[in-house]
Amino acid sequence: MKEKKPWREDKNVTFLAALAVFAVAASIRFFSRELSMYNTTPFALTYKYGFISRGFMGTLWAFLDGVLPGDLMNYQSLYTFSFWATVLYLVLLFVLFSSCLRHCREENQHNMRYLICFLGIFAFQMFWSDELFGRLDIYLMILTTLGVILIVEEKCEWLVIPFSIICVMIHQGFVFVSANLMLVPLFYKILIYKGKKRRKYIVIFALMFLSVSVLFLYFELFSHSKGAEIFDEVVAAAKALSEDGQGYATTLLDHEILGRDVFEEEWQYHVFNYKEFPTALLLFFPYLVIGLSFFKKLISNKDRLHRFVYLVLFAGVATVLPEMLLKVDYGRYMFRIFYYYISMVMVFIAMGDTTVADQLEETKEGIKRKIPVPLVVLFYPMFLTPFFDVIISGAVHKLSVWFFG
Amino acid sequence: MLGEVVTVQSVFMFVSEIRGACIKKGFGKMVRKEKKRLKDRFHIGRRGSTAKTGQPLRRYMLVLSVVSFAMFLRFYDQRVDPYNSTILAFSYQYGFVSRGLVGTVYQFVNKITPFNMISYQMVMRFTLVITLLFHLLLFYFFWVCLRRCKEQYLQNLEYVILFCALLTVSMFFSRRNFGRLDIYMLALSLVAALILMKERPGWITWLVIPISALGVMVHQGYVFMYLNVILVLLIYKALSAEGKRKRYYLLLAGASFVVASALFLWFELFSHGNGAVIYDEIVTMAGKLSYKGQYHDTLIAHEILGEDLTVQEWPMHLENFIETPIFLFLISPYIVLGVKLMRGIIAQAGTRVEKWKYRIVALGAVTMLPMFVLKVDYGRWFFAVIMYYAVILLVLTAMGDKIVETQLFGLMVRVKEKYSWSMLLLFYPVYFMPFWDVHICVLLKNISNPLNEAYFHIW
Questions:
Q1: Is residue B36, in this structure, part of any structural domain at all?
Q2: Is A375 in CB contact (< 8 Å) with chain B?
Q3: Which end of chain A is more exposed for a tag (fewer CB within 10 A), N or C?
Q4: Cis peptide leading into residue A386 (ω within 30°)
Q5: How far apart are the first and last CA of chain B?
Q6: Structural domain boundaries, residue B26
Q7: Which residue of B has its CA nearest to A386?
């Protein structure tokens, strides 16, 4: 039986404690202390108007307003709620980190710590800016992270089904940007396990996939029919929740309540994207090279089954593509791409995949041979982040303006 | 034998052999070949197994450049603050005024070039060019340090240099300090450090005296902020030498100190006499040089009219008193490591003179105390303190100080081995960048402002 070390001597405990300080510093550094009207407006959408898209959080908020003392239908209450939701997201990240460290082999823990730092650099500062503080994404991340923790821990994994359903009800974009974080590990388990366990995961996977798909189609195609009738009431509620009592996110309500296509209105943002994305690819090019090299060697595995598994791991991020084609929040999508790859490698290693662990070690050694100060691979993205929404990041935007005007 | 220190005898023998070879067989290719052979034989020109200027160093400089470019993109605000544009209105056409050197140079450049420099756009361009040139100088300084470093310590030195680059790129490209006079002061101290890095004194070493003078003419605060680099290195060299050389370095240190002090006293006490006469002209010029004509009136009032700003600056002092303990707490791991390093260096020193030498190195930043007491730009003062230690440690390792090498790099290795979170020591400072002026940095502002709004209501 492993001797339990005092917590001060446990490298993982001290690492997570130091990382918590790092996370707090990141949060303080980037916290804008402002909840934009784009992030207050969704709380005006509730199910009293019918089973409308993005109505879950507004319904929950209205419910809490009804049961708790005091008036919650104001900016300050929503601001406080958003703050604690973001803190909860960070806490859950640390639970995930702890889970991954506990489940991976001792010889892989050093690399797991590198991955955790790397993920933290993107994840800690993401939801504190004025564009993204209080964004519905944070609730998706909370539930998704919980789901991933359950998958790693192999406890109550069936809960990913209701979590996914709630996520689609919060924001139907979950299907493209976050569902893969749970679907890919479930798919891995289906391929790796046999017998009863495999059947269990097939059922969970199928139920999750079906439920989110059905709900997504409903919200996209059928939930706008009453839009015109409820529009004015929703606008009034949205104004009440904003900081100045006047503003609300017009394109959001036009699209979600009236079902209007906002592609033309958003065209200027698409133009931003077409300029910024190639610039981002240029700046993040080293990671493209490292990532492709990593996956190339992984996918050239001798075993056909494992080749397929790693192909799915590699291609699992493709669910973001429809969002990138049709919508404009490239900053959020870039975050999703990095978050997906880093967290999935962590999760695969935590689930006991020795091939991924060994390939990571080989990649790390390759980096150490080629790059004089190898930690720079983790250090460099600190200057190209945080990611925003339409604008990918400050650094990317600056360079793209210099290139393209 | 590798690592052999150059002696006077080996130099003499080297020169004699070269001379003999030249006389026997003429100049040209043969001489170059002989020179190389003899250099290798007598180990002249390199300190034992120092880093070679091969692919690894060039690759590191490329990585450093790429990362620095990313830092530049992150921190560059494309704006010169009114404070930093107003200073360019001060020039020696109004007399020997304080902080007049850079403005004089700027207006001289305006006279000799076909461009009209008296506009905000040209101030922007000029400042960008200067900041880029500064970083070229800084990278050259890094290159020299890397070349002179022993191969076994190279990777650790590369991390120290990366940290320095983070400090300066973030500081001097961000809006608050883009065009700040600090960049010129630090550049002068770096030039002096490069001169003093040479093992043997020559005529060029005398340049530290005019460099000290120029530093004070740029900004009289140079006496407290960056002159310590020059004085500490000179005292270090004096205490490391004997006889004539010791007196030589002490003379240089004394002369630099006297010249800088005299200029400081002139600028502080006597240079405001003409203030009222030149005020309007300077205000007009400052308006032309500043963004949307918004010049910094307090700066002109203090430097030209000699007005005392104590009452005006009192809320800023209170801001400093709130932010400083929080900042020191947040960077306490670095303070602990720094103190450990210095104590280790001093403990390893053998003789009493050596111990004093390293005590002076450790305490060299004490010259900043008057700035902390009297002025409010704590962001700049903390930057100056950290840069002092960074530059001094880089120079001492480049000079081959074995005690500093073993202690510094030994500490880095021990920290890496002992602490699973040691990599965070490189990442964590990024959140404190850039250093500002009154607010130490954005992170501290995000702590002190809410505290002020909730409890203090000072600013």
A1: yes
A2: yes
A3: N
A4: yes
A5: 65
A6: 1-45
A7: B74
ipTM given for this complex? 0.92
Residue A404: closest CA among A276, A284, A285: A276
Q: What is the maximum span of chain B, computed from C-alpha positions, in angstroms?
A: 86
What is the pTM for the complete model shown?
0.90
Residue by residue, pLDDT tens for chain A (405 residues) are: 445 555 555 889 999 999 999 999 999 999 999 999 999 999 999 998 889 889 999 999 999 999 999 889 999 999 999 999 999 999 999 999 999 999 999 999 999 999 999 999 999 999 999 899 999 999 999 999 999 999 999 999 999 999 999 999 999 999 999 999 999 999 999 999 999 999 999 999 999 999 999 999 999 888 766 777 788 888 888 898 988 888 888 888 887 777 777 777 788 899 989 999 999 999 999 999 999 999 999 999 778 888 999 999 999 999 999 999 989 999 999 999 999 999 999 999 999 999 999 999 999 999 999 998 999 999 999 999 999 999 999 999 999 999 998
Q: Is residue B442 part of a domain?
A: yes
Q: CB of A31 within 8 Å of any CB in chain B? A: yes
Number of CB atoms found within 10 A of residue B58's CB? 12
- Chain B contact present for A395, CB below 8 A: yes
Q: How far apart, in whole angstroms, are the C-alpha atoms of residue A290 and residue B194? A: 38
Chain B: closest CA distance from residue A405 (Å) = 15
Cβ-nearest to B158 among A121, A372, A380 = A372
User: Which residues from chain A sit within 8 angstroms of residue B70, using beta carbons?
Assistant: 283, 380, 383-384, 395
Would you list the domain boundaries of chain A? 9-135+228-264, 155-220, 267-405
| Residue A15 near chain B (CB below 8 Å) | yes
- Assigned token pair, A27: 């949060």
Q: Do B59 and A12 touch (CB under 8 A)?
A: no
Buried b (16+ CB within 10 A) or exposed e, B323-359: bbeebeebbebbeeebeebbebbbebeeeeebbebbe
* B interface test, pick of A109, A383, A402 with most B CB neighbours within 10 Å: A383
Residues 6+ apart with CB under 8 A from B68: B135, B165, B169
